[in-house]
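User: What would this chain look like folded?
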Amino acid sequence: MRRSLLFVNTVTCELGAKIMAEIAKNQLKSDSVMKTGKFPYTFRTAWFLLLLGINFLMAAYYFHIIE
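Assistant: Here's the prediction, encoded as structure tokens.
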């Protein structure tokens, strides 16, 4: 029997893989998009648009489009 660095046997490894697969399957079922149908990334999108606007503003200042 081959041992890993953490000395985990094959039964424990297979059990861990089954548990992780079950957790992943349950997370897919309980996704917020499936429940509400709303766009879940509004906070990230707002920050993205704000930082993008600041970036364009700084680029316009750098290229002397605005003074």
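Helices lie at 10-29, 32-36, 42-62. If you want, I can go into more detail on any region.
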